[in-house]
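Quick one:
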Amino acid sequence: MRDHGGNIDWARANWGGDDWIDLSTGINRVPYPLPDLPPEVWTQLPTAEAKARLIGAAQVALGTTASGVALAGAQAAIQMVPRLTAPGRARVLAPTYNEHAASLRAAGWQVEEVADLAALAGADLAVVVNPNNPDGRCHDPQVLRALAGQVGLLVVDESFGDPRPDLSLLPDPGRALVLRSFGKFWGLAGVRLGFAFGPGALVERLTEMAGPWPVSGAAIEIGTRALADADWARVTIARLRADAARMDDLGAVAGWRLIGGTELFRSYHTADAVAAQDHLARHRIWSRVFPWSPTWIRLGLPAPDEWDRVDAALQQCADDGRHNPC
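Output:
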């Protein structure tokens, strides 16, 4: 199933109210402050020079000299990757973001979802999300570089990797194709910006597939400025790490067991994930549950002015646990 978080309209329709806290995604709820934009980003087509500046800013921020292309979010890359080569045998390290397997199947690939990294070897195309969504599993870059030599094409999705540069393949992607999201860490999902970095031939092919203007002039300008703001990134990483620990403390109060997560979301084992989601929804806090697990729930991290509501909801979850277990 291609289920996703972010379906806040469905939550409103079922529970009512307008003042929702949407924690169903891993999007930073303290976004990068939008700069004033020059009028030409709205009135002119993006120029080659502007696109090159964006890629240059991304290379500096992400610590890479690899070839790259800017796309309409990592999702755009996920949908194009299956068409880079003729369909064959694909393996996806699971459980993970479901769009990888779904996009591969839609393009005619035979897809096997496997639980062990070693089981990816021998595939014509293999996908690893690092750090993983939703359980936060992490993989050593050296291990992934070795794996790249054992598959036809290794795709490493680092959409949640901004706070963990130590995990990134980008300093030396080798044969792998590395995907990055802009909207999650920078909190600007509506900008629809992401990147693919890797071998020049693959990036050239993606560039051709994407067409001449894959991202807007506004996205290029916002992305270029945000990626150059290393101070904002450093302060944000520190805050997210503290907030992740705070969320884990609240989850423990509610009686939830930590499964894992990243600096942008936390996943927990509960007695009943649907009951826990319903409890939070009655407080107009939207969370993510998964059709393949009756016990897993995932929450993003609240903005500073949202913590009191989340704290109260989870405390009540603990207090009411005997009668309506979360």
